[in-house]
Design brief:
Layout: E1 8-12, H1 15-18, H2 31-36, H3 58-67, E2 72-76, H4 79-82, H5 94-109, E3 113-119, H6 125-131, H7 139-154, E4 160-165, H8 167-175, H9 199-226, E5 229-235, E6 238-241, H10 247-270, H11 275-281, H12 290-296, E7 302-306, E8 310-315, E9 329-332, H13 354-367, E10 373-378, H14 390-394, H15 397-415, E11 421-427, E12 446-449, E13 455-458, H16 460-470
Parallel strand pairs: 1-2, 1-11, 2-3, 3-4, 4-5, 5-7, 6-8, 7-10, 10-11
Antiparallel strand pairs: 8-9, 12-13
Helix pairs in contact: 7-9, 8-9, 9-10, 9-12, 13-15, 15-16
The structure holds beta-D-glucopyranose.
Length: about 475
C-alpha cells in the first residue's frame, strides 16, 4: 500500500457530455449546441440535447456514485446555465446557479467530495458571437474572472477547483483542426473561418491569462476563508522515441511533451513558454506582458493531470509547415522495431501503455518540482463495445485491466519514485456524449441505455475501482 490515507478517488464527467436539458431553467446555448447543429460535424448528427439527462437525475447519479463507493466526483459547470449570455455585465441566472449549489450540498450529504471544473469546453455561444470568444485577449479573461467569482461566492463548500479542462484541446482541436467547437481551421473545405497557424496559440495564451485571473480572485477573495485549492487540468500523452538510437527522435519525444503540456505548464510554473516553442513559432506565439506573466506564474495549487495513452515519436524534417502544432514530428503506434505501443481501443488515438503513465508522472514531477498532482481523468474506450449486447458490455474486463494497470503505475510513481499524487478520477462515471464521435464511443464505467430512457447500469469496472484503491491506499 503506497497511497496516502487521504488519497481521493472517484469519477469524472463534464456538463455538456452528460447534462442534456439544454434549454431548461434559463440555460442559453453554448458553442457546442451551435457546433452540433452544423451538418457533418458530429457522428450521426448527434448532440448533447438529451445526453444522459443528468441535469434532471442528480439524485440518481449520486446514488450511483454511492453504490460503487466513490469518494469524490469531478464534474463541470455549464457557464451558460449560470450566466446565459456569459459576460460580466450580463445577468446571472439564479435557477442555473441554484442547481449546482444544491448538487454540491447533496453530494456532501452523501459523503462525496465535489471537485468542480469551471470550464470543460462549453463557452456561452453569445461570447463567441459578441467578440470572438476565446480569441479575445481583453474581454475573455475578464468575463471568465467574473463567472469564476460568481461561482466561488455561491459554492464555498467546494474545496477542489479546476479552472480549465485541457486548454490544448480548446486550442488545437477547436482552432487548428476544426474538429471541436467552434470549428475554426485553415482548411477551407471544413470551415470558412480560421487560421491554424496563429489562432491556437492566441487561444492558448488567453486561456492561461483567464486561468491566472480566476486563481487570483480565488486566492485573494475566497481561499483565506474557504481553504480550498485551485489548479488547471492539462492533457498530454506519454512519449517514446520511435528509434531510441536516434538522438533526433529522443529530442522529438521530449519536444512533443513540451508542445502539448509544457506549453501551458511552463507559464504556470515558470512564467514563460518553452524555448522549443518560441524557436519554432517565433512571434506567432504571443508574448506575456509583465502583468499577464505575474498572473500566470505560480498559479497552480496542484497540477491537474488528464492522461490516456502514449505515442512513439519520430523527428520531422526541420521544416514544419506553419500549421504544425506538434513540434516538427510525427507520431505512431508502432516503433522502429515494429513493436506496438499497446492494444487497440475504439479511439484511434488511444492505446493503453501504463508504463507511460508512470514515466509522465515522473517527467512532470521533475520538471515542476514535485507538485501535488491530482489525476483528473484517466480511462479507456473499448474496441467495438457499442456493437455488443448490454450483458456483454457490462463485463468490461478490458477497462478493468486498464484501471488496474494504470493505478498500479501511479502507485509505483508514488512509492518508488517519490512523486506526490493525491487523487485519481476515472473517466468516466458513465457513457456520455463523446464530442465529435457522438455516442458511438463509450468511455463509461456505467452503461447508459440511450434507447431506453438513459437507464444506467454499472459495468464491472465501476465496481472494480473501490477494491482497487482500497488495496493501494494506506489506512490511517
Ligand atoms: C476530455 C473528455 C473526453 C475524454 C475522452 C478528454 O480529453 O476531457 O471530455 O471525453 O478525453 O476522449
Amino acid at each position: 500500500m503506497s497511497l496516502r490515507p487521504d488519497f481521493l478517488w472517484g469519477f469524472a464527467t463534464a456538463s455538456y457530455q452528460i447534462e442534456g436539458a439544454i434549454d431548461q431553467d434559463g440555460r442559453a446555448p453554448s458553442i457546442w449546441d451551435t457546433f452540433c447543429a452544423i451538418p457533418g460535424k458530429i457522428a450521426h448528427g448527434a448532440s448533447g440535447e438529451v445526453a444522459c439527462d443528468s441535469y434532471n437525475r442528480t439524485a440518481e447519479d449520486i446514488a450511483l456514485l454511492k453504490e460503487v463507493g466513490a469518494q469524490a466526483y469531478r464534474f463541470s459547470l455549464s457557464w451558460s446555465r449560470i450566466i446565459p449570455l456569459g459576460g460580466r455585465n450580463d445577468p446571472v441566472n439564479q435557477a442555473g446557479l441554484d442547481h449546482y449549489v444544491k448538487f454540491v450540498d447533496d453530494l456532501l450529504d452523501a459523503g462525496i467530495t465535489p471537485m468542480i471544473t469551471l470550464y470543460h469546453w462549453d463557452l456561452p455561444d453569445e461570447l463567441d458571437k459578441r467578440y470572438g470568444g476565446l480569441l479575445n485577449r481583453e474581454e475573455f479573461p475578464l468575463d471568465f474572472e467574473n463567472y469564476a467569482r460568481v461561482v466561488f461566492k455561491a459554492i464555498p463548500k467546494c474545496k477542489y477547483w479546476i479552472t480549465f479542462n485541457e486548454p490544448f484541446c480548446s486550442s488545437v482541436l477547436a482552432y487548428s483542426f476544426g474538429q471541436f467547437a467552434p470549428g475554426h481551421t485553415s482548411d477551407r473545405t471544413k470551415s470558412p473561418v480560421g487560421d491554424s497557424s496563429r489562432e491556437p496559440w492566441i487561444v492558448g495564451h488567453n486561456l492561461l491569462v483567464a486561468h491566472g485571473r480566476a486563481v487570483k480572485v480565488y486566492r485573494d477573495e475566497f481561499k483565506p476563508t474557504d481553504k480550498g485549492v485551485i489548479g488547471i487540468t492539462l492533457n498530454g500523452d506519454a512519449t517514446y522515441p520511435w528509434d531510441p538510437e536516434d538522438p533526433r527522435d529522443v529530442e522529438a519525444a521530449e519536444r512533443k511533451i513540451e508542445f502539448s503540456i509544457a506549453w501551458f505548464a511552463d507559464p504556470v510554473y515558470f512564467g514563460k513558454y518553452p524555448d522549443s516553442m518560441r524557436k519554432q513559432l517565433g512571434d506567432r506565439l504571443p508574448e506575456f506582458t509583465a502583468e499577464e506573466a505575474a498572473l500566470v506564474k505560480g498559479s497552480n495549487d496542484f497540477y491537474g493531470m488528464n492522461h490516456y495513452t502514449a505515442d512513439y515519436v519520430k523527428h520531422g524534417d526541420g521544416n514544419p509547415p506553419p500549421e504544425d502544432h506538434a513540434g516538427d514530428l510525427t507520431t505512431s503506434k508502432t516503433n522502429k522495431a515494429g513493436e506496438s505501443i499497446g492494444p487497440e481501443t475504439q479511439s484511434f488515438w488511444l492505446n493503453p501503455n501504463p508504463q507511460g503513465f508512470r514515466n509522465l508522472i515522473n517527467w512532470l514531477s521533475k520538471r515542476y518540482g514535485y507538485p501535488p498532482i491530482y489525476v483528473t481523468e484517466n480511462g479507456t474506450s473499448i474496441k467495438g463495445e457499442n456493437d455488443l449486447t448490454r450483458e456483454q458490455i457490462l463485463e468490461d474486463d478490458f477497462r478493468v485491466k486498464y484501471f488496474h494497470d494504470y493505478a498500479h503505475a501511479l502507485a509505483a510513481a508514488v512509492a518508488e519514485d517519490g512523486c506526490d499524487v493525491r487523487g485519481y478520477m476515472g473517466w468516466s462515471l458513465m457513457d456520455n456524449f463523446e464530442w465529435a464521435e457522438g455516442y458511438e464511443t463509450r468511455f463509461g464505467c456505467t452503461y447508459v441505455d440511450y434507447e431506453d430512457n438513459q437507464k444506467r447500469y454499472p459495468k464491472k469496472s465501476a465496481y472494480a475501482m473501490k477494491p482497487l484503491f482500497d488495496s493501494l491506499i494506506k489506512k490511517e
